[in-house]
Amino acid sequence: MEDTKEEDSKQSEIDSEKENATNTNSPEEDVQNEGLESSVEESAPENFLKSKLDKVYGENEDIKAKYLRALADLENLRKRSLKDREDAINRTKAQMLGDLLPVLDAFELGMIEAEKTEESESLFAGFSMAVKQMESILQEYGLSKIDPTGNKFDPALHDAMGYENNDELEEGTVIRSIRKGYMIKDTLLRPASVMVARKEEKPKE
Fold first, then answer.
1. How far is 128 from 122, CA to CA, in rounded Å?
2. Helices 121-140 and 27-115: angle between axes, nearest 10 degrees
3. What Cα–Cα distance (Å) separates residue 92 from each residue in 89, 97, 107, 140?
4. Which of 43, 54, 142, 198 pairs with 77 at a CA distance of 20 to 30 A?
5. Residue 99 CB neighbour total at 10 angstroms
6. DSSP 120-185
7. How far apart (Å, rounded) are the C-alpha atoms in residues 16 and 19?
C-alpha cells in the first residue's frame, strides 16, 4: 500500500511539473506577448483618430468644393449683370444717336445748298462749323461715319439706291454716297445709301 501511495505521489508531481511547464512562458515570450498586447492597445486609438481625421478632411473638401462653386456662380452673375448693364447703355445710346441723325443730315444738306452760291459763303461756314462740332461730340459717344465712296459695295454696310454706267470704275464700286451711314462702335446704326457702278451694256450687233 505504501508503495502505491508513493507512486501516486510521484505521478502527481510529474503531472504538476508538466502543467507548470505548459502554462509557464519564457521571459522572452512574456516580453513578446506584452509587446503585442501593447501595440494592439496603442493602434486602436490611432486608427480611431485616423478615421476621424479622414472624415473631417472629407467634409472640408466637400465644403471647399461647394464654396468654389458658389464663388464661380457669383462671378458669372457679376459678369452677366455687367453685360446686361452695358447692353442697356448701348441700346440707349443707339436710340439717342439714331434720333440725332436726321438733324445731322439736315445740317449737311444746308451746307451743300450754301456752297452753291458765293452769297451764302458765310452761311456755309456757319453750317460747316456746326456740323464739325456735332460730329466731334457724337464721336465721343462711339459714333463713326460710313462714307464708302470709291470702295467696293458691301451689302452689310451699304444700301444700293441705284446703278450707274461707268467704264472708268470697276463694276460694283460705290460711285457716291447719297446719304452717309453711321456705326456705333462695332454695331451698324444706319447703312450708307449709295450709287453703284456697273459696266455699260453694249448693244448686240
1. 10
2. 170
3. 5, 9, 23, 15
4. 142
5. 9
6. GHHHHHHHHHHHHHHHHHHHHTTEEEE--TTSBP-TTTEEEEEEEE-SSS-TTBEEEEEE-EEEET
7. 5
Alpha-carbon dihedral angle through residues 106, 140, 91, 148, given to the nearest 10 degrees: 60
Taking the model in full, what pTM does it have?
A: 0.56
Confirm if 185 and 145 have CB atoms less than 8 A apart.
Answer: no
> What does each of the 205 residues of the chain score in pLDDT, given as a tens digit?
444 545 555 555 555 555 554 444 454 555 444 544 444 445 566 676 667 666 666 667 777 777 788 888 888 998 999 989 988 888 888 888 888 888 888 888 877 777 777 777 777 787 788 888 888 888 888 888 898 988 999 999 999 999 988 888 888 899 998 888 999 888 899 999 999 998 776 656 5
- How far apart, in whole angstroms, are the C-alpha atoms of residue 202 and residue 182? 37
One-letter amino acid of 198: R
Q: Which residue has the cell 444746308?
A: 110
Is the CB of residue 191 less than 8 Å from the CB of residue 147?
no
Cell of 52: 476621424
Distance of CA 149 to the CA centre of its chain: 39
